[in-house]
Specification:
The complex is a heterodimer of chains A (61) and B (298).
Chain A (H helix, E strand, L loop, with lengths): L6 H29 L2 H5 L19
Chain B lengths: L1 H6 L1 H19 L17 H4 L6 H7 L3 H20 L1 H12 L3 H12 L6 H11 L6 H8 L14 H26 L3 H9 L4 H26 L6 H7 L5 H4 L2 H11 L3 H29 L6
Helix pairs in contact in B: 4-16, 5-10, 6-10, 7-10, 8-13, 10-12, 12-16, 15-16
Classes of the chains: A mainly alpha (61), B mainly alpha (298).
Membrane topology (chain B): Multi-pass membrane protein
Pfam families (chain B): BPD_transp_1 (PF00528)
Subcellular location (chain B): Cell membrane; Membrane
């Protein structure tokens, strides 16, 4: 018996993607904040990736 | 008796660390309860301080803050149980319905992550995310054209923040137990239910849920016992004088008055009172589950 994809499967996958985003985003955000140059953090411009080139980050290494 | 001890000596040896732990860290400190009936003086010591009977208990119950403290503790615990208890069950049921196993494992792994960071870090992250100036939650609120909310300074938001962050941190981890319980459900039951014409919803209702009911009952009993034992650290890290109205719970009050202000006897009395209530909760939850279903802890 071949099972077809129900609407529920799609809704379920979307719901769980929501769970993934909700749990993972804070981690990604914290990682980005910790790697960004501090003036970008203060100006609230960090979203997903770190901002500021390595040369501006005097705290690196 | 001695014969039995000799026969089971290795089992007793295995049990010993647990017993010693409980005796040293749980039972011996219990003798400290005695200072709640004495006017404890650091210089006189426990034995030489004079007895005052129930003075500190009366002092607590005549304190106008007492009602607010008990209400806050109870409500915080009740909301945590009400929303935090079903969350891992729902997550486990949703995960159970996923057919693509790689995706299922990915979601599981990701949802465990927050469990491994400490409460202090979670509190720090919450302070950052909920900040009215640089927090991304307020960015979203601003993007929809509303005024930013200073979440951590408003008493009305405290319980929501506490419960929601608790769910965020523990739902994935909590779902492990239910997923393990789900694997013990006999697949034949699903097949039989399918042949009888049960849809997905009916199969979940009549096969899956009864299958994990024993695990649910035991966790409910355990959680109901902790309803008043609200984690001290998290409240302590998230509250501030502006939110005492809803956030101040018994354990933080005991810390502030008992340790910070040095009223050791009074703090002990309040804490013992909370312990008694907590015990009643565990006991009645267990009694209820034994009456309603077959499972109970003792």
């Amino acid at each position: 018996m071949k099972r077809k994809v129900h609407l529920f499967d799609v809704v379920n996958a979307l719901l769980l993607s929501g769970v993934v985003v909700a749990t993972l985003y804070p981690f990604v955000y914290m990682a980005a904040v910790s790697l960004s140059a501090s003036d970008y953090v203060i100006r609230n411009e960090v979203t997903i990736g770190p901002k500021g080139s390595i040369s501006t980050c005097t705290t690196w290494f | 008796m001695i014969k039995q001890v000799m026969r089971d000596k290795y089992f007793l040896l295995l049990l010993a660390p647990v017993l010693i732990y409980y005796v040293i860290f749980k039972y011996v400190p219990m003798f400290g309860i005695v200072i709640s009936f004495k006017n404890y003086n650091l210089f006189k010591g426990i034995w030489d301080s004079e007895w005052v009977g129930l003075k500190y208990y009366i002092q607590f119950f005549t304190n106008p803050d007492a009602f607010e403290l008990i209400r806050n503790t109870f409500l915080l615990g009740a909301y945590k149980l009400l929303f935090g208890f079903p969350a891992p069950i729902i997550l486990a049921l949703l995960l159970n319905e996923v057919r693509w196993s790689i995706y299922k494992r990915f979601v599981q792994t990701v949802s465990y992550l927050p469990h491994f960071i400490s409460v202090v870090v979670v509190a720090g992250m919450l302070t950052l995310f909920l900040s009215p100036t640089i927090g991304f939650i307020n960015d979203v609120i601003k993007a929809f054209g509303f005024q930013p909310i200073n979440f951590l300074m408003e008493a009305g938001w405290f319980r929501t923040i506490y419960v929601a962050s608790g769910i965020w941190q523990e739902a994935g981890w909590g779902s492990i137990i239910y997923l393990a319980a789900l694997t013990t459900v006999d697949p034949q039951l699903y097949e039989a239910a399918e042949i009888d014409g049960a849809g997905r919803w009916k199969r979940m209702l009549h096969v899956t849920l009864p299958g994990i009911a024993p695990a649910m009952v035991i966790l409910l009993v355990l959680n109901a016992g902790q309803i008043l034992e609200i984690g001290f650290e998290k409240v302590f890290l998230l509250y501030n004088p502006a939110t005492y109205e809803t956030a101040d719970v018994i354990s933080t009050y005991v810390y502030r008055t008992g340790i910070v202000k040095g009223n050791f006897s009074y703090g002990t009395a309040v804490d013992l009172f909370m312990g008694v209530i907590s015990f009643i909760f565990v006991f009645s939850a267990n009694y209820a589950s034994r009456r309603l279903g077959e499972t109970s802890l003792w």
